[in-house]
Every structure is written in structure tokens, then in C-alpha cells.
Amino acid sequence: MSYYTSLTGLKNAQTELNVISHNIANAETNGFKKSNTQFADIISSSIVTDPSLTVGIGSRVSVIAQDFNVGAIEQTGNALDIAIGGEGFFTTVSPKSGQTEYTRNGAFSVDGSGFIKNAQGARLQVFPSVGGVTNTAVHQDAQVAPTNAAGSAYASVTIDQEGMVVASYDDGSNVTLGTVALANFVAPSGLKQVGDSSWKVTGKSGEANFGAPGSGAFGPLNSGSLERSNVDIAEELVDLISAQRYFQANAKAIDTATQISQTVINLRT
């Protein structure tokens, strides 16, 4: 029994080491959210078992919980680098698959077709409104026209704290493209990680609730800034040492059980 009990500990320690390693590897990934491993004990008992004689048979990973605390905000000076100063996720849609993803990484740029997109090509979603958002159920790709109605060429695009996306043209005119669509969830820890600092909706997270930056629980936007990873290297290194000791202790318990078994076998022979 002691072999299997300690074996659960070894597996858990390996899982924790993997999670910590993943956190450390993404310490410089913009918009990344660290994860924490939580364990639960396993008890072997039945309705006739004396509670005072209940024996534990190890532990298991109960959950690998994502930590959505806001990371440090870094100034970049790029107009299309935007950080959310509070709750919310940017909404993006892949032009190839049509799938909607959510991210805290606000590093955007304009492609050759005028779409505002992230490094993976997913297009930033905006509410098609000018004088305030009235319908959060409708959002569309943010796209800059190469020329305005007067034929002047596109010059630049900016996004303010309220999420208004404004394109400027050579003749000095401005065109509002819409308001950045932010999403929030009842249980963000239930979101599915899909890589590239992005998440998808699951049954555990609940459906997305959309809103404009700076409204309700949604944080305002910080233009010219990016949200860094919320990984604390010092904390992760301490956890790494703890996980290593956890692994070594369980390995030692298996070694001790092996020695006891060997002693019993030698006595019988």
C-alpha cells in the first residue's frame, strides 16, 4: 500500500513541477496568466469503517487553477499596444476558422487589408457605434479604410481610454471605426487555454458578457502600453524548491518501503 500512496505523491510532484516550469518559461510572455496546482487527499473507507481507523491512500491533483490577477503595465509608445487597466478580455476572431478567442495581450497592428489584428492574425472586434455602445450583442472586425470619402490616404489609427478606435487621414479628418469590445466571464478560471495568451469559452466559464472599456466592471484601456505576465519569478523559484523537496520525500518513502520489503523477504528465506 505504501508504494501506491507514495506513487501518487510522485505523480503530483511531477505535475506541480511541470506547472511551475510552464509559468517560468512564460515570465516574459505578454498577457500570460500563471497557474497554481492544488491537491486533495484520497481516503479509503466504507460505511462500516471505524472513523478512528481510517487510512489515507495518497493524494491527487484537484485543480490547476489559473490566476487572472493583472500583470505589470509596461509603456511601449506604440499606439496599437493597449492594456486593460482592470477586468476584461479583448475579443478576437480568426479569419480562417471563424472561432472567437479572448486575450489580455493587447499587441495589435494593421495588416495589408486594414484589419487590426494580433500576431496570430486574429482580428480585433469592435462594437459598430459612434455615439456610445447601445447593443453589446453585435460586434465586428475593426478595419481601417485605405482612403476616406474625400480620397485622402490613411495616416494612423488610435484607441483612447473608452475604447474608441479612430482612423486619421492625410487631410486631417478622422473616422471613428467603433468601440473595442471587451468580454468578461462569471468564472474566468473555467476558460480553456489555447496558447498565445488566448482562451476559449467552456461550460465552466459561462458565456461571455460584453461591454465597453471603462463601463461597469470593465477596466479602461491604456494606449501605448502592454500588460506583462503576472508571473513572479522569485515566488516561482521558491515553489520550485518546495516541489522538488516534495518529490524527494515521496521518492524516499518508496525507497524505505523497498528496504522494508527486502528485509521481510530475507527473513522468510
TrEMBL record:
Subcellular location: Bacterial flagellum basal body
Stretches assigned to the Flagellar basal-body/hook protein C-terminal domain: 223-267
Keywords, in A-Z order: Bacterial flagellum, Cell projection, Cilium, Flagellum
Record-linked Pfam families: Flg_bb_rod (PF00460), Flg_bbr_C (PF06429), LlgE_F_G_D1 (PF22692)
Signal peptide start and end residues: none
Residue intervals of the Flagellar basal body rod protein N-terminal domain: 4-33
Boundaries of every Flagellar hook protein FlgE/F/G-like D1 domain copy: 83-167
Record-level GO cellular component terms: bacterial-type flagellum basal body; bacterial-type flagellum hook; cytosol
GO-annotated biological processes: bacterial-type flagellum-dependent swarming motility
Function summary: A flexible structure which links the flagellar filament to the drive apparatus in the basal body.
Family (UniProt): Belongs to the flagella basal body rod proteins family.
Name by which UniProt lists this protein: Flagellar hook protein FlgE
